[in-house]
Fold this sequence. Notes:
Blueprint: H1 18-44, H2 48-76, H3 105-128, H4 133-147, H5 149-160, H6 163-195, H7 197-207, H8 210-235, H9 246-263, H10 273-298, H11 303-325
Amino acid sequence: MLSRFMPRSKRDFSELSEQEILALAISAEEDDARIYAAYAQGLRAEFPDSAKIFDGMAEEENTHRNWLIDLHKKRFGDVIPLIRRDHVKGFYERKPDWLVRPLGIEKTRNAARDMEAQAARFYRLAAQNTGDADTRKLLGDLALAEAGHEATAAELEAAHVGPDVAKAEVSEEHRQFVLTWVQPGLAGLMDGSVSTLAPIFAAAFATGDTWQTFLIGLSASVGAGISMGFTEVASDDGVISGRGSPMKRGIAAGVMTTLGGLGHALPYLIPDFWTATTIAILVVFIELWAITWIQNRYMDTPWLRAGFQVILGGALVFAAGILIGNL
């Protein structure tokens, strides 16, 4: 009964027989080939040249698998034991990042390099745990092959992805990141930071009550965040504009709008009015600086122009809030 509630036991690598080591290597090569094929499929639409690299890597893993199967047949027959990497203690694991869409080109290449380094370590350890000369030789050769896959990847990259193509792929990935996350997030941060200045400071100077000011700021921030998020989702499905998933853009816009408003609403949790107001004003300057930095960093807007636009808009809204609050 207790076994149902206890984690499944794993075997130590040192306990595996030579047949089980071969079976483990076969299943690992099968998995890696499928992972490379998944990487290729995930990259093919946006990065077709890089997808060819992973097609080549998948073919090479299938070749290794066939070598291992032939050796297993020669030594142990046709029945290969079912043993996988998650059955063995300390065996390297593969995070299922190949299921994520869209795939990041640099992240995918780095993941492939890690896979090959891990596989090389496994084959070196496996070779040390077998006494058969043919098996030891093949495992050693595979360790060298996996260690040399970085060079193979470089050769495939040179064949399929020239410097201009690689540069264009990285540029396209950056562009997609800006369109999907940065632009909606920046619009939300600007809206949340600037548009809530008037109601929050109007409430502060009209009531002099920090708790009431906080509640007004909280409601304005959350309401604006929900509104901006749904507006972003409904305004563009991303198919024609190429701006990416509307859900991701909606999350970016909604979350950043809420944070932009909460930044100068939270200080009003402090009971003392002037202390809360002073901190809130300092937070506003930090928010405006962050907006200016994002515009300069990701939108290539010159510092002077970005700062002028943000500070002028913020100052006008801030002044309007104080003026209305003192009526």
